[in-house]
Amino acid sequence: MKETVSMFTRDGVRLDADVYRPDAEGSFPVLLMRQPYGRSIASTVVYAHPTWYAQQGYIVVIQDVRGRGTSEGEFKLFAHEIADGFDTVNWASQLPGSNGKVGMYGFSYQGMTQLYAAVEKPPALKTICPAMIGYDLYHDWAYEGGAFCLQANLSWAIQIAAETARLKNDEQAFQILYAASRNLPLFDTIPAYPEIIQKYAPDSFYHEWIEHDRPNEYWEKLSPKTYLKNIDLPILHVGGWFDTFLRGTVNLYKEMASRSHFLQYLLIGPWAHLPWGRKVGSIDYGLAAANPIDELQIRWFDRFLKGIDTGITNEPSISLFEMGSNHWKCFQHWPNNSKTSYFLQSNGLASMREDAGKLTPPPTPTRNGEGGTIAEISSVSDTFIHDPWRPVPALGGHAAFPAGAFERSAIDCRTDVLTYTTAPLTEDLLIVGDVFVEIYCRADKPSFDLSAVLSEVRSNGNVYNFTQGYVRVQPNQSTQPVKIELQPTCIKITAGNQLRLSLSAACFPAYPVNSGTGSKNKETRLIEAEIMTISVQSGGNFPSRICW
């Protein structure tokens, strides 16, 4: 049974919600989702319909946030979610039939509204289940390694602006924005700041996000991280290996697990931002990868809202999907040893031949302790040209659309991509947890970018990416080596296959092409982009490496 009801915030703004009730007598806990996309959708792109949750014995409330759907007020990204979230939780706890206990669920923006709602500690809020969120909005959402997440930010800004135009019944603006969402305007005079955003989305968050291109007070005021230091709740954290916000999910989990008195449960599947299914990109991860979240959330809410012993508190608190074996693996603590390294070696032709660049483990000492060191290997430079006229394209991963794993051997054959590959593995190789690369490099321009992609090279020659990272090296940033943090991952590469690292100076349009000048994205014109020469050094005194 569904009904539409309204509440008023502390400043008198009406917020509308759909309420779904169990077909039974009695009092029930409330499950709340607050979202900006029209409450009828109810995030059914990844979750079961609210009627299913109601059938499990919950009152389900799906609310339009301020200025969205039919709710009154002005929508401003994340600006009102702390106060409105607090007011909504208190209101929902007092609905007819409520037992006074509230839990929240939802992903992306709907995950963020949970974090903001918890800030003022509404007494009725007993647990939350945020999926795919930004804990630090600068590092986890808007920028990665100092590079603007162009494709994700621009497409979302256009989507939000189109919905604003629809609510205003501005058909011309809506049609223009809708068309742009299907063919992103990436080649304007200023590529990262297209005219359509300036003209048809004057109130968009995009203007502030591209202006504030360094961590500063703006991001501190906006980020949940600033406000959650004294918050403690049982939290179910959900992420995906190919989700663009995985960094936020993992960072929030680590923070809470380090200090919480309550259970913190983390589950990461082999999924992109949406949907959460068995096939992502070109890879079918099998039935085990099918979305388990609805049933898991009911077990979670039954425990923390109904007091039912579902056994979840007796299980390992981390569940990670291991790609390759395609099974779930359980851990009691986040696997973060950083003890395994593979080092780059080359004959200087890593951009020309796939067998020229190699990844090698540290030399194994002999019985008498001898065996050589990395420093004894001659240092070599691999030099390549980055041409902004033909930047290395994004293919899958977490920051591009569509996301996931794709066959990328054609990209690895480009001469502006350096590849370093192990010999065929003699035993299975497990990579799990945090992954980073350290690269000794230099360029002939004040600023340059580095994209790092890890892939599995199969015995038939096909190459499938499984994690990657990106960094923008700014002028006067002379620290060596350059560290690139890749997405956390969990994969088993089977014996006979190979591990590969691919390095390039672009991943477009996931990130803007670096002009080389060091100017702000908001001011960088397409005509300013220059050809640059980049050299990657390995061996000897330059132990460039992968580490996990």
From TrEMBL:
<dbReference type="InterPro" id="IPR008979">
    <property type="entry name" value="Galactose-bd-like_sf"/>
</dbReference>
<dbReference type="InterPro" id="IPR029058">
    <property type="entry name" value="AB_hydrolase_fold"/>
</dbReference>
<dbReference type="Pfam" id="PF02129">
    <property type="entry name" value="Peptidase_S15"/>
</dbReference>
<dbReference type="InterPro" id="IPR000383">
    <property type="entry name" value="Xaa-Pro-like_dom"/>
</dbReference>
<dbReference type="InterPro" id="IPR013736">
    <property type="entry name" value="Xaa-Pro_dipept_C"/>
</dbReference>
<protein>
    <submittedName>
        <fullName>S15 family X-Pro dipeptidyl-peptidase</fullName>
    </submittedName>
</protein>
<dbReference type="InterPro" id="IPR050585">
    <property type="entry name" value="Xaa-Pro_dipeptidyl-ppase/CocE"/>
</dbReference>
<dbReference type="InterPro" id="IPR005674">
    <property type="entry name" value="CocE/Ser_esterase"/>
</dbReference>
<keyword id="KW-0378">Hydrolase</keyword>
<dbReference type="Pfam" id="PF08530">
    <property type="entry name" value="PepX_C"/>
</dbReference>
<feature type="domain" description="Xaa-Pro dipeptidyl-peptidase C-terminal">
    <location>
        <begin position="298"/>
        <end position="547"/>
    </location>
</feature>
<dbReference type="GO" id="GO:0008239">
    <property type="term" value="F:dipeptidyl-peptidase activity"/>
</dbReference>
